[in-house]
Write a structure and sequence with these properties.
two-stranded antiparallel sheet; single chain; 88 residues; 4 helices; mainly alpha
Length: 88
Amino acid sequence: MDGTAAPPRRNGEPVFDAPWQGRVFGLAAGVVERRFDGDWAPFRRCLVDAIADRPERAYWDSWTAALEELVVGAGLLGRDAVARRIAD
C-alpha cells in the first residue's frame, strides 16, 4: 500500500511500536490472503475511510478499525462477535 494507507516503514519493513500492532498486521494479512485472494484493495478502502474518519487517530488504531470494518462487511463476524473478541 502507498499514500495515506501505507504502514510506517523503516528500511522497507513495517514498523511496530508494540506487539499488538504486529499481531493486527498479521491478522489483516491473513484475512486478505484467505478471504480476498491476496487482494488488498478492499482493506485499503476501509483503511483510507478509517483514517479520513478520524485523522487524529494513531495509524495502527486506524488499521485495527479498518480490519474490524472489513471483517464485518465481509460477513466473517458480526459486530457483537468482534466486540467480544476485543474484550477478551
